[in-house]
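User: I'm new to structure prediction. If I give you an amino acid sequence, what do you actually give back? Let's try with this one:
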Amino acid sequence: MIQRIVVTGSEAKADLKAVPVARSLAHQLSVPVSLLSVASGAAEAATRRDHLGKALRRMGERSIEIETMIDPSIAAKIVAEVEARDGTLLCMATHARRSLAEVVVGSVAEDVIRHIGSAVLVLGPKAAERTLGAIQIVLVALDGSRRAEAILPDAAGLAKTLRAELRLLRAAPPSLRMEPNVQSSGVDEERYLKDVAETVETRHGVEPSIHVFPSGEPARRIAEYAKQFEEPLIAMTTHGRTGIRKTVLGSVADDLLRTAPCPILLRGPTGTG
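Assistant: Good question. You get back a string of structure tokens that encode the predicted 3D arrangement of the chain. For your 273 residues, that looks like this:
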């Protein structure tokens, strides 16, 4: 269960775009939200705290606590802070409309997503352009693999708490099924989703609906599908077993982060077992 939301922040305006979304979700969940900024030195930390305080006040955000910490290993510190307290949801914004592989490879965002053991709420550029209202539906992208199903407890728990609909999507065409446990291309897609839905209902007390996409680009279909709903949230895992640059960025997750009209609840390779 989510007990607090932490937004990572620097002095970049793009980082702060995650604040209204985090605040809105925190209000829906009745949990506190704070802004965490990790600097490499004391002088930088002091300057950043001052700038962030002014930026939040300009946004009308006077109740959000700012936590500044000093550590040269910024990503590792963020991960440690989040994992130190159970029930912490990290919220991050990506910075550009270019491929994420060009933006965050080797960056703090990449390192956090790769190493954190919990799901992260990520906002791409299109999601950051809108204000998040009360989430009405959680769309879970599945490809038939056990790794993809690792996001289900997070998605089901959030949908149950928010009293939102939970819908399972079969997202990946046969050509993208490279996971060891992915079912073959001859599988009945609808039967697979019904089986997963039954398991989710039994384990988590939420009855999901299902939707099967025709063949095509999964990221484009999911993004377009999400636009049908007023306040959607997409939930999915990445498949970065051999390095985020090769198998996470440039994948369905990468494309969705750039094109999705809503936030994505993303579980990285460390958190998928």
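You can read the tokens as a compact description of the fold. Here is one thing that stands out. Residues 137-272 form a domain with the Rossmann fold fold (CATH 3.40.50.620).
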